[in-house]
Specification:
This protein is mainly beta and 73 residues long. It has a single domain, classed as SH3 type barrels. The protein is 14% helix and 52% strand. It has 1 helix and 7 strands; from the N terminus they run H-E-E-E-E-E-E-E. The strands form 2 sheets. It has a 5-stranded antiparallel β-sheet, with no helix packed on it. A hairpin with a 5-residue loop joins strand 3 and strand 4. The termini are far apart.
């Protein structure tokens, strides 16, 4: 049980509330399928089921695999 909780807490990221804790990220870099790199201020983000992240940068929302996103506080 502790390993499951630890994994969930460690794998979560940015501007997101879990167990009364808010994870906030101010910047993200995203690699799109065509190789384009998008980076900028994170307006909002959400983790979807599986390994997908929905990240909004400058009003545009991107749905990316977690392996193609870097987020920092």
């Amino acid at each position: 049980m502790m390993m499951l909780v630890g994994c969930v807490v460690l794998c979560s990221c940015g501007n997101y509330k879990m167990f009364d804790t808010t994870f906030t990220y101010s910047w993200a870099q995203i690699k799109l399928p065509d190789g384009t790199i998008i980076e900028g201020k994170v307006d909002n983000w959400n983790d979807c089921e599986g390994d997908q992240l929905r990240i909004t940068i400058d009003g545009t929302t991107y749905l990316v695999h977690a392996a193609n996103a870097i987020m920092k506080t």
